[in-house]
Amino acid sequence: MQMEELYESALRKFRKAAVIMNLDPNVQKILEHPKRQLIVEFPVIMDNGSVEIFTGYRVQHNVTLGPAKGGIRYHKDVNLDEVKTLAFWMSFKCAVMGLPYGGAKGGVKLDPSKYSIKEIERISRRYFSEISVIVGPDRDIPAPDVNTNSDIMAWYMDTYSMHAGYSVLEVVTGKPIGLGGSEGRTEATGRGVAKVAELALQKRNQKISGSKFAIEGFGNVGQYSALILSKEKNAKIVALSDSKGGIYNPNGFDIDDVINYKKTHGTLSDYPNAKSISNDEMKTLEVDVFIPAALENSITDETAKKMKGQIIVEGANGPVTDTADEILKQRDILVVPDILANAGGVTVSYFEWVQDLQSFFWKKEQVNGTLEEMMEKSFNEIWDIKERYSTDMRTAAYILATQRIAFGIEKRGIYP
Ligand code: NAD
What we know:
There is one protein chain. The chain has 416 residues and is α/β, with parallel strands linked by helices. The chain contains 15 helices and twelve strands. The protein has helices at residues 4-20, 25-31, 80-96, 117-131, 150-164, 188-203, 220-231, 255-265, 279-282, 301-306, 322-330, 338-341, 344-358, 364-388, 393-412, and strands at residues 36-45, 51-62, 68-75, 102-109, 140-144, 212-216, 236-242, 245-248, 275-277, 289-292, 311-313, 334-336. It has a seven-stranded mixed β-sheet, sandwiched between helices. The protein has a five-stranded mixed β-sheet with strand order 1-2-4-3-5. Helix 1 (4-20) runs parallel beside helix 3 (80-96), helix 13 (344-358) crosses helix 14 (364-388) and helix 14 (364-388) packs across helix 15 (393-412). The longest helix is centred in the C-terminal third of the chain and has 25 residues, at 364-388. The chain is globular, with a radius of gyration of 20 Å. The site of nicotinamide-adenine-dinucleotide has 24 residues, from helix 7 and strand 7.
């Protein structure tokens, strides 16, 4: 799928909900257009003394319910359409969880593996300085996404604070613990994924203990989903993959050992006692749950026709194309949509922001317990709507989120 089509594909999923809920066409119009789209081109000095120009983006989709919130991605394929789409999804994700936020997303087009740590630091600081014209703790609060981490969040926070003249911890989330970060943030998306996987299995009268999982993508979301599923829920992770390919063992993996192997070897390939498989083969394995936790559009029509798992939990944003979504629905494969399934990250980001604003920090148990409660509440709300309208979980999630944003639009009087 061309990137230009990603936003259109996202709109098609939203429009299904708009029709079912009989949404006011004027509210629909507002939600189909992002509020602000910023493109920045900025110079950075490389280690060899030359100057390179980078392109970065920050899009704020809708801020009806509060300041904008969303991660920043570093990837060679980042472009405005992708960032716009990710920002669109963030508005609905925050509303699904009942957070007082609108949606945003950012990105810098670059292949991080080609730059030194010092170069990444200079790129990060310059990019954040450029987008500071629209971000801020009460306006737009960034966070990590693909290829960005807590070190980069600390540089962003420092850059913003240098301009402000004092430390503004609450301008970004996903920071290191000890510098305004929250307990439980790093693993929050994986924890939320594991929780909704358990709830989805219950709906299909299956227990999570002993259930078989395949996980595509072995970064923040993939690794923590695998760890929590295997260690806390006793599930069996039989297949794992990263951008270079996958591994399969029907008896299940020791995830700590796989993480250590990946740290040492930089890849999962040749992991001992496992069969090498491609990312495509992985999607056709006989498993109970498949978790896409890499990038968009990983499940196309072709894959959707061949998949054998009965449940898909979308750890990644937008991993299922809109036409594949229809095929999965016809095949009665239950899809737990991204705007719920991976909302654990933004939910604990919200807890981090609240803790920074109050300068009062929570224990890990409080973070994890509150997160799991909120995931379960939203899951059940979506399930009720799904049953009421005889629709799929994604459409039900859009209905729930849209009801909340539309309420805000109406009460604020943006649209009378
Ligand atoms: P990450 O950079 O930590 O990891 C990405 C992983 O995907 C890596 O293991 C990479 O090798 C793998 N990958 C890339 N292309 C692949 C391909 N074609 N096939 C298989 N694997 C591939 O990123 P992340 O933070 O884990 O994010 C993953 C997804 O989850 C993204 O869609 C992101 O937007 C979404 N997400 C992340 C968070 C978060 O808190 N980090 C929150 C919500 C949603």
